[in-house]
Amino acid sequence: MSANLNPKESATVTPLSQDGDGDVSERASIDRPPSSHEGLPPSKVYHPLAFPVLALLIPGSIMGALARLGLQALATYEGQSIFPLAYAQSLGCLIMGFCLAIKEPFGLFYGPLYTAFTTGFCGSLTTFSGWQLDIFNSWVNAASSRRGGLRDFVDGIGKSVFTLSLSLGSVAFGMRLGHATKPYLRAPSPLKRTPRYAISVVSVLCLAAVFPTFFRLPTDFRHRATAALLFAYPGVLTRYFLSLGLNPLNPSFPVGTFAANMLGTALVATFHVLQSTRQPPSPTSCAILQGLIDGYCGCLTTVSTFAVEVVSFHIWKGSRYVLGSWVVAQLLLLVILGPSFWSAHVSKTITCSWN
Question: What ranges does the record give for the region Disordered, renumbered to this chain (predicted)?
């Protein structure tokens, strides 16, 4: 599962350096802004918790969530050739791989932009919890399609394998594109102080703007997008803190990313139960629940960082990480959703009303 097709190019294709047993010593720094490890002078290094880094996660998360919801809506139509979420997963992983390959130029220009694009935008554009819920819905045939049990199994396996293949391939291709582009970005002009301050101010204003969009725009938009925007940044911030705090604990297993993906998957299952009760909550509560699913859980969980971590492992460790994440997520959905479905207290389809 390594993207380093040629060992001689390993230092240029990916910024992650591997040690002798295949573990990636800098895996914990994937979500962090560029540092001295990328050859940056101290004046251009930002602390992971610096205000500009946290501020730029705001527009990244909002734009990522909007792009995901927009792509899903655009790709949902009669006779669609592939499940809608695949487009967002593939695009997010492609951009993630590209940004990783040009991490040093990002740092020379303005380090917080790297985190805004990777952790913020790509992490919000892709979603691990949505992927796992799609798979589980295939197992139980939530859409009540005309097919047998074996075809339900094939549909779930297809979504599992195709999403993983698209994600890993997109990360590797993005790294190749970044490697080809990097020679032209070796000496970018650093961003001046005034534009840097302006970007941070605009970022904070983006967070303030999501509240009037929820309350002032028509209620029909709440379950489609505006409710999700309320929770996009908190979701990204939770994932970012988990990554900073837990990923360095074990260089051979990304504990922070795993915890974020499992927590988000468990919450998605819980919110899905609340959306599908026989006596659904009020329209506003239904919109908030959908916003928590699309915004908080969608941005809390990520396929882009997950795919980069898998690519950075050797084949056996990568396979173990993938299989462990997939199995635990499906078990969480089974434990939370299964009893609700089979006790007949909860419908397999959403019963919430938006009006």
Answer: 1-41
Asked, for residue 217, whether it belongs to a domain, the answer is yes
What are the tens digits of pLDDT across the range 59-89?
999 999 999 999 999 999 988 889 999 999 9
Domain range for residue 102? 30-342
The pTM (predicted TM-score) of the whole model is 0.91
State the DSSP string of 73-111.
Answer: HHT--TT-SS-THHHHHHHHHHHHHHHHHTHHHHHHHHT
Q: pLDDT, tens digit, for every residue of 196-215? A: 999 999 999 999 999 999 99
Contacts of residues 3-7 at CB distance under 8 Å and 24 or more positions apart, as own/partner, are 3/97, 3/171, 3/172, 3/175, 3/311
The structure tokens 């795993």 sit at 258
With contact defined as beta carbons under 8 Å apart, do 243 and 260 qualify?
yes
Among positive and negative, which fits the CA dihedral 83, 84, 87, 93? negative
